[in-house]
Every structure is written in C-alpha cells, then in structure tokens.
Amino acid sequence: MHEYITKLHTEYQMLGEQLQNPSVFQDHKEATRIQKRLAQIEPVMPLVREYIDCKKIMSEAEETYDDPELKILAKEEGAKAEKRLPMIEEQLKKELLETDPLDERNVILEVRAGTGGEEAALFASELLRMYLRYAETQSWKTELLNKHDAESGGLKEASVRIDGDHVYGKLKYEGGVHRVQRVPATESKGRLHTSAASIVILPEAEETDVEIRPDDLRIDTFRASGAGGQHVNKVESAVRITHLPTGVVVSCQSERSQLQNRARAMEHLRAKIYAHAKEEEARKKGDLRSAQVKSGDRSDKIRTYNFPQDRVTDHRIGKSFYNLPGIMEGNLESIIHALHAPATEQ
What we know:
The protein has helices at 2-20, 28-41, 45-61, 68-98, 117-137, 167-171, 258-285, 324-328, 333-340, and strands at 107-113, 141-149, 155-163, 176-182, 193-203, 217-222, 238-243, 248-252, 303-306, 311-314, 319-322. It is an alpha+beta fold. The strands form 2 sheets. The protein has an 8-stranded mixed beta sheet with strand order 2-3-1-5-4-9-10-11, sandwiched between helices. Strands 6-7-8 form a 3-stranded antiparallel beta sheet, covered by helices on one side.
C-alpha cells in the first residue's frame, strides 16, 4: 500500500507540472488525458498527503534529539501518527474502490438470446423490457440502436443506448449470463425448462479513449427493417461497421438518415473496443467481479430467475431476492444495491 500511495503522490505532482507547461496544449489528446487523470486522483489527494505526513512524523520520531523535551514530544507525535496510519490506509482503500471514473458515463446495453431456442428468445425480450423499465424509474433516456427479432417471437439480439446520471455505476455488474427456469406456455406436460440470455454493459467511450483508423473500417449500408416510417425498406439508411483488426461488428438502424446511423454505430464500436481493453486490464489485475461472461451458455451464469419459486438468485454474492414479477417490471434496486455493497454486508 505504501508503494502505491507514494507512486500516486508522485504521479499527481508530475501531471500538475506537465499541465503548467503551455506546450502540452498543442496536443489536445494528451492534454485531455492529463486533465482526466488529475480529476480522478484529486478526490483522494488529501488522504494521500496525510498519509505521507504521518510517515514523515514517524520517521522523525526515531531521530535522536539533544533536547529531552523535544525528543519526548517527537515520540508522542510519532505514536499518534502510527495510530492514525491504518485508519488512513483503510479509508484510502475504500475511496479508491468506490471511485470509478467510468461510473458517470452513459452505457450501451446489449442483450442476446442464448441456449434454449424459442424460450431463450422470449426471455431475452423480457430482460430488455426489464432494463428499459428500470431506466424509466431512474429517469434515464433510452434509444434503441439495433434489434433483431426471432422468427417464432421474442428477440435474437438488441442494443440500447442509455443516457443519464450515473448509468454505468448502477449497471456495471449486470453484465453476464442470465438463466431462467420456468414452464413455457407451449409445454403441454408441465415440464420445467432452463434457458439463457446474455447481457453486456458497455461504458460509452470518448474519441480520446480509443484510436480507430479509417483504414481499419469496412462500412456497409442496408435497408432498415421494423418501425421507422416510410424510409423503411426503401432507402439504405442502416449502417454496419466492421473493425477489421479485431473483427468487431456493430450496426445501427434507429435513425432516419445514414449519416446519423453511422455516427451511432461508431459510438457503439468505440464502446465495444474500449470495453474489451478495460476487461483485459481487469483480468490482468484479477478483478473477477467486473468480468462479463458473453458466451450465452446456460451453464455459465451470474443469475437465475426461477419462476416456480418466485425467486431470483445472484450467484456471485450467493443471495436470493423474491417478488419475481416485480423484478421483471424493473424493480432492480435491491439487487443492484446488494451487488455494490461491501462484502462485509453480504
């Protein structure tokens, strides 16, 4: 902890010095990076400075003084600093854990049917509706970017942009495979079926977060389908963008113009590439709690929705929640709160 705090203090000083140099503003991307990083560190700096001061006082207390009274005073101050140090460390850990600069960002939510055929597609559409309802309770704006319906009803996949206050902070632990257990309406013998759908939560990425070269893109246009007015199926307004180095593909058909759909698709592409980079970084640090499973296989789950028992169980925290109809109507606050609570509260 000591080494990390010292590095953080040094980094803050160096960034401040760099920002004092007018030449740094000639590189807009670098200046933005420095400003953003300073804003991230600034809230914990009072604690960092207090920690360094305590370390200094403790070091000085070990020095030999000719004046006996001065030596006694130094020892007393050193003892106070030593007692205070663990409390500062604990508070710093909490602050650094809770302060995620991405929390304030908007998100792109992706939902995709997994294992289970028709029932998986129906469950995927219900999950999408659940999150749209939850967004309403938070006064967030939602915009459907892309949607592919299943032939037999339900949803193959969809992507939605959610804009509002603290969106990523609220939804970042929702990503993963969601499993449902229930008797489908088409099941004549009353047998319990298990199906799955996957949710991906992508923090919105700024242009300075991800560098995408035009040469790395293949852009295709096609006719939009579904609701949208007279232009549907008559004008090639929908856009599909493929990022050649990674193979990431996104599409958008929500807007009336090709130009608008292209801009929305680029936002989605940046978010996917940025999220991939952040996940790799988290995996290297061992941050398993933020990892998002995307396979859509029912055996690889974070949460189970058991309709016969009126229960939702989140397997990461080993906790169950009841009133399943209410949860499917968007009443997710108790689950989201539990996922964000410290381990000692669970």
